[in-house]
Amino acid sequence: MKSSTVAAISTAQGEGGIGVIRISGDEAVKIADKVFKCVGNKCLADLKGYTASFGYVYNGEEKLDEAVALVFKAPHSYTGEDVVEISCHGGLFITKEVLRTVLEAGASPAQAGEFTKRAFLNGKIDLAEAESVMDIIGAKSRSAVRTALVTKDGALSRKINTIKDDLINKAAHLSAWADYPEEDIPEITEDNLENSLNNAEKELTDLLSTYDMGQIVKEGIDTVIAGRPNVGKSTLMNLLTGSDKSIVTEIPGTTRDIIEETVVLGNVILRLSDTAGLRETDNRVEQIGVEKAKKRLQNCGLVLAVFDSSATLNNDDYELIDAIKDVPSIAIINKSDLDKNIDTDYISKNISQIIYISAAQGDGLKDLVEAIEKVVGTNNFNPSEAILSNERQRDSANRALMSVKEAKDALMMGMTFDAVTVSLEEAISSLLELTG
Ligand code: GDP
User: Fold this and answer.
1) How confident is the model over 161-219, as pLDDT tens digits?
2) 248 lines ligand 1 (CB under 6 A)
3) Looking at ligand 1, which atom is closest to the CA of residue 248?
4) Residue 212, CB half-sphere, CA atoms under 13 Å: how many?
5) What 3-state class would DSSP assign to 276?
6) Any atom of ligand 1 within 6 Å of the Cβ of 339
7) Structure pTM?
8) What's the CA gap between 176 and 77, in Å, rounded?
9) Is the CB of 249 under 6 A from ligand 1?
10) What is the DSSP letter of 364?
């Protein structure tokens, strides 16, 4: 079957050293040959796959740019089709001009995601692997890239396929045994079937438990910096973000709204917000800020509760400690450079992680990173294991697990193998959906 040949600018739309125009499809090389003249007058069609050629892009007689053309021959390319990638200079105007010339030479514009879609349709990658390409592109931390690459390399698909193959084997056996009684197919034992179902249940449960961690690694954790005024929240925020976004002053109550910023600390992405200092106040504007901050505490993923080492705990501090008892939190005793007046007994009774820092001097950051990784759980996270990285994958895995449990229940209740087979087939179908 002949596929249409499509082209698009594959690099980001902006100014850069190099811009890549990718052409994919049966006519890719022929079209590229119309616009690209190799130095030495060779045709791209005469080149072997995985070969680069230096030359010029022409629009008719007009020389547009100096470029390198990379030739990939089907099926050994990203899309599985013939592909030519023209790397020209990365200006906004020039890349658009080269693309326009390629389109005039016979290619159609590629839709968003079309190269990856073609890779999927041509069997180069499955759906989970295709989704991981977007995760690699969108990754904000080393861990996020590593987990996405592991999926791209097929770790999740291999795990799903192993579970699926075993279930298919059992379902096929059950169907053959029921449908061809004259063939002398040995009856499957209940133990054997139960073992497979138990195994599938365990594997899927383990996989589903990776989802939350996957989300944290990929999207980061919603983190609130809380504490009464003047303990050093804004100074900490500025230390973590490396900027002066939060207003640091000696007047209590200066941060009235929520300031947000994303930072990568160790292996964790924190979506940080510095909130209004928590204290009793008559100022209406400040009150609104305090109320907002209190609400945020209850539905965030991590609280960095800041206390002033040089001062004794007051009611606002006690209130904060009580409010975050059940939320993952770290107590940060700030201003460790000053004389210590704080009594941390009440804090350590309620918050398991306590660390000492001087936000102003930048001391104690390493301890903070370690404490965060401990509380969030990324210190035990193995990025080379298969994980579920989006809601679609989680939903398919969950439905597969439900069907496996139904099959198990049917078996336990002594229902016919036919009833077990129906649930098995549903589980298989959900697993097939997961990998597309
Ligand atoms: P916030 O109201 O909790 O946001 O507190 P700020 O970050 O605005 O800090 C209040 C005051 O404490 C400022 O004068 C800071 O310079 C000072 N401060 C913050 N962190 C430290 C620290 O680690 N050591 C010392 N000595 N002063 C600090």
Assistant:
1) 999 999 999 999 988 888 888 888 887 888 889 999 999 999 999 999 989 888 888 88
2) yes
3) 8
4) 8
5) coil
6) no
7) 0.75
8) 40
9) yes
10) T
The type of residue at 267 is: N
Token readout for 246 is: 């939060």
SS3 (DSSP) at 356: strand
CA 232 – ligand 1 centroid, Å: 4
Can you tell me the distance from the alpha carbon of 144 to that of 151, in angstroms, rounded to the nearest whole number? Answer: 11
Three-class DSSP category at 181? helix
Residue 266 confidence class, pLDDT cut points 50, 70, 90: confident
Nearest Cα neighbor of 23 from 31, 11, 14 is 31
Q: Is the pLDDT of residue 246 over 60?
A: no
Helices 284-298/315-323 angle, 10° precision: 30
- For ligand 1, atom 10, the nearest C-alpha belongs to 230
- Residue carrying structure tokens 């056996």: 173
pLDDT of residue 106: 97
Cis geometry, peptide bond prior to residue 181 (ω within 30 degrees of 0): no
Helix extents (H) in 220-283: 233-241
Neighbours of 244 (CB within 10 A): 10
- Give CA–CA dist 164/425, Å, rounded: 10
